[in-house]
Structure formats: C-alpha cells, structure tokens
Write a structure and sequence with these properties.
Length: 88
C-alpha cells in the first residue's frame, strides 16, 4: 500500500514539473513578445521625428551627456499614450 501512495506522489511531482516547464516556456514567449512590441514602438517613434542614423546618434549622445534637457510634461496636461489594446 505504501508503494501505491509513493507512486501517486511521484506522478504528481512529474505532472507538476511538466506544468512548471510549460509555464516557464510561456513566460519566455510573453517576455519576447513584450520586447518585440517595445522595439516596434521605439522604431515607430524614431521614424516619426524623421532623423537619419547620424542625427539620432548625435541627439542621443547629447542627451546622455546632459547637453539637451527635455521638458517635463505639465501635470495639468498629461501626455496621452495610445493604448495598443484599442488597435487589436
């Protein structure tokens, strides 16, 4: 009788490991999907300002060095961001 109980516990362990592996794979896929979407949004923003590669690099370098300071959004007029769920 003890072996039956032990067998059941071992089966449950294997099922749990399989579920964990499945969820880890799902998490990796979702993280990759998120990164891909973030990258697409960045590319879209860069294209919207019509800078070539050299101009973009110069701008980013100047910003990183503190030579350019971007204005902070006014709290009374927050910047609205598009919700990607509306596009689906």
């Amino acid at each position: 009788m003890t072996n039956t109980k032990l067998d059941r516990i071992e089966r449950d362990i294997e099922k749990t490991r399989a579920k964990i592996l499945e969820q880890q794979n799902r998490l990796k896929a979702l993280e990759a999907q998120k990164t891909e979407e973030e990258n697409a949004q960045i590319v879209q923003m860069v294209k919207a300002v019509h800078l070539d590669g050299a101009q973009l690099a110069a701008f980013l370098t100047a910003y990183a060095n503190g030579e350019i300071v971007l204005p902070q959004p006014d709290a009374a007029y927050p910047i609205e961001q598009e919700d990607s769920k509306d596009e689906e």
